[in-house]
TrEMBL record:
<dbReference type="InterPro" id="IPR001330">
    <property type="entry name" value="Prenyltrans"/>
</dbReference>
<dbReference type="GO" id="GO:0004662">
    <property type="term" value="F:CAAX-protein geranylgeranyltransferase activity"/>
</dbReference>
<comment type="similarity">
    <text>Belongs to the protein prenyltransferase subunit beta family.</text>
</comment>
<dbReference type="Pfam" id="PF00432">
    <property type="entry name" value="Prenyltrans"/>
</dbReference>
<keyword id="KW-0677">Repeat</keyword>
<keyword id="KW-0862">Zinc</keyword>
<dbReference type="InterPro" id="IPR045089">
    <property type="entry name" value="PGGT1B-like"/>
</dbReference>
<feature type="domain" description="Prenyltransferase alpha-alpha toroid">
    <location>
        <begin position="3"/>
        <end position="389"/>
    </location>
</feature>
<keyword id="KW-0479">Metal-binding</keyword>
<keyword id="KW-0637">Prenyltransferase</keyword>
<keyword id="KW-0808">Transferase</keyword>
<dbReference type="InterPro" id="IPR008930">
    <property type="entry name" value="Terpenoid_cyclase/PrenylTrfase"/>
</dbReference>
<dbReference type="GO" id="GO:0005953">
    <property type="term" value="C:CAAX-protein geranylgeranyltransferase complex"/>
</dbReference>
<protein>
    <recommendedName>
        <fullName>Prenyltransferase alpha-alpha toroid domain-containing protein</fullName>
    </recommendedName>
</protein>
<dbReference type="GO" id="GO:0046872">
    <property type="term" value="F:metal ion binding"/>
</dbReference>
C-alpha cells in the first residue's frame, strides 16, 4: 500500500505535455479546468518546477491570460469561444466570462507563480455581483441583456467566493470603490440548503450531496463565516456516514439469500449494515444468525456522495475536505480510506479511476491525490481544504504585496464604516 510516485509523475507529465485522449474532446470549453487539475497535481507532487522550462511556464501563463475576458474581467473556459475580430454587441453572449473558469484560471496562475498583476482585478470584482441572484445564489455566466445564466447550486457560490477571496481577501464591504457581493445573502442561501439530516444540497429542499456540502462550506470559509455549532455537528454526522464498504456495483447485490430487498443498497434488514458486528436487538441477532458471513473487507473503506450509493474516489476529497473545514478530519477511518485509494482506485499506469477497475481520468486522479494529501501522505504537499490547492500556493498568494495592501485597506475601510455607524 504505497503511492506509486514515479507512475503518478509519468501520468501527469503525459497529461501536461501531450494530447489528451479523444474522450476529452467534448471538454474543449473546460480546458481551463483541466489545466488546473494537471498543474495542481504536479504541484502537490512537488514536481511542477521540474516539469517545465521557463519558456514553457511563460507560454502557459500567456495562454491563461489570452483567455481573460476583454469586457467582464473574468476568464473564458478556453480559447474556443474567443470571437476576436468578429465580436460585436449582438454576439457578445456567445463569448461570456465564465465563473468556474475564472476561479481555475486565477488558481492556475498562482500555481505558476504569477503575481496576478495583469489580472483586471477591479473589473472582475465588479462583475461578480452581477452574477448573484436576489436569493444569494450565483450563476455561471451573463447572457443576453445581462441575464444570469447557469445553475442555482452551490458550486457557483463557491467559485464566486473563491474569486473574491483571491482578489480581495475576507473583509466584507466595498474595496477600492468596487461594491462587494451580498455576503449575508450567500450565507443565508447555504443555511437554507442544509437538509434535515445535516448534509447540504444544491438548493433548498433538495437531497444532500457531499460535493455541494464541500462547496457550501468552502464558500463560507472564503468569506470568513462558519456554520452554527449545532448545524456543524449535524453536518459532521452526515459526512461521517458517507464512509462505506460498498465499493463497487457487485457489493450492492446481496449474496446471502438472493433477496433483492435484502441488500446493502436498500438496507431493509439489520444484517445488511456492514459496519456492525454486534446488533442492538434480539430481532437483529435472529435475523443475522445462521447467515453466511458478509464478504465486505473493512480494511478498505471509500466514501460516497449520497445515501445508498457506492464509493467513488472523488468523494474521499469532498467528504474529507469538508470534515477538515469543520475541524473533524480525525473522525473517519484514515487507514481504511488510504487503503481504498492506494489499493483499489490507484491505476497501474498512474492516476486514479472513479471506482475499482476504471481507467484513470484527470478529475478523479487529481482529487485522489488531494485526498491523500489531506490524510498526510508522505511525498505530497499539504492542502488548504477550502481552496483545493496546496498551502504552498496559498502562501504565495498571501505574500503578494498588492493583495496584502488590499486586505489591509479593506479592513481599514470597514473599521471606519463600523465606527461611523455607516
Amino acid at each position: 500500500m504505497a503511492l506509486n510516485t514515479p507512475k503518478q509523475l509519468q501520468y501527469w507529465k503525459r497529461c501536461l505535455k501531450t494530447f489528451l485522449p479523444h474522450h476529452y474532446t467534448g471538454n474543449d470549453c473546460n480546458r481551463m479546468t483541466l489545466a488546473f487539475f494537471i498543474l495542481s497535481a504536479l504541484d502537490l507532487l512537488g514536481e511542477l518546477d521540474s516539469s517545465m522550462s521557463q519558456g514553457e511556464r511563460d507560454d502557459y501563463i500567456a495562454w491563461i491570460y489570452r483567455c481573460q475576458h476583454p469586457r467582464d474581467g473574468g476568464f473564458r473556459g478556453g480559447p474556443a469561444t474567443d470571437l476576436d475580430g468578429s465580436a460585436s454587441p449582438a454576439n457578445a453572449h456567445w463569448d461570456p466570462a465564465n465563473l468556474p473558469a475564472t476561479f481555475f484560471a486565477l488558481a492556475s496562475l498562482l500555481l505558476l507563480r504569477d503575481d496576478l498583476s495583469r489580472v483586471r482585478r477591479r473589473d472582475c470584482l465588479a462583475w461578480l455581483p452581477k452574477l448573484q441572484r436576489p436569493d444569494g445564489s450565483f450563476g455561471e455566466t451573463l447572457g443576453e441583456g445581462g441575464r444570469i445564466e447557469g445553475g442555482l447550486d452551490t458550486r457557483f457560490g463557491y467559485c464566486a467566493a473563491g474569486v473574491r477571496w483571491i482578489l480581495r481577501g475576507h473583509a466584507e464591504g466595498p474595496v477600492d470603490a468596487v461594491a462587494d457581493v451580498d455576503v449575508p445573502a450567500l450565507a443565508r442561501r447555504v443555511a437554507l440548503s442544509q437538509t434535515y439530516d445535516g448534509g447540504i444540497s444544491e438548493a433548498p429542499f433538495h437531497e444532500a450531496h457531499a460535493g455541494f456540502t464541500y462547496c457550501a462550506l468552502g464558500a463560507l470559509s472564503f468569506v470568513g463565516r462558519r456554520l452554527d455549532v449545532a448545524d456543524a455537528d449535524l453536518a459532521t454526522r452526515w459526512l461521517i456516514a458517507r464512509q462505506t464498504a460498498t465499493l463497487d456495483e457487485d457489493d450492492a447485490i446481496d449474496s446471502t439469500a438472493a433477496d433483492e430487498t435484502d441488500s446493502p443498497s436498500t438496507c431493509h434488514d439489520a444484517h445488511s449494515f456492514v459496519k456492525l458486528r454486534a446488533f442492538p436487538s434480539e430481532k437483529g441477532r435472529l435475523n443475522y444468525e445462521n447467515r453466511p458471513a458478509d464478504r465486505f473487507d473493512l480494511r478498505c473503506l471509500g466514501f460516497n456522495g449520497r445515501c445508498n450509493k457506492i464509493a467513488d474516489t472523488c468523494y474521499a476529497w469532498w467528504v474529507g475536505a469538508s470534515l477538515s473545514m469543520l475541524g473533524r478530519l480525525d473522525l473517519p477511518a484514515h487507514d481504511a480510506a488510504r487503503r481504498y485509494l492506494l489499493e483499489k482506485t490507484q491505476h497501474a499506469v498512474g492516476g486514479f479511476g472513479k471506482v475499482p477497475g476504471d481507467p484513470p481520468d484527470i478529475y478523479h486522479s487529481y482529487l485522489g491525490l488531494a485526498s491523500l494529501s489531506l490524510l498526510g501522505e508522505p511525498g505530497l504537499k499539504p492542502m488548504r481544504p477550502e481552496a483545493c490547492i496546496s498551502e504552498d500556493a496559498c502562501g504565495f498568494l498571501e505574500s503578494l504585496p498588492w493583495r496584502r495592501k488590499i486586505v489591509g485597506l479593506a479592513a481599514a475601510e470597514n473599521s471606519y464604516i463600523a465606527a461611523s455607524g455607516g
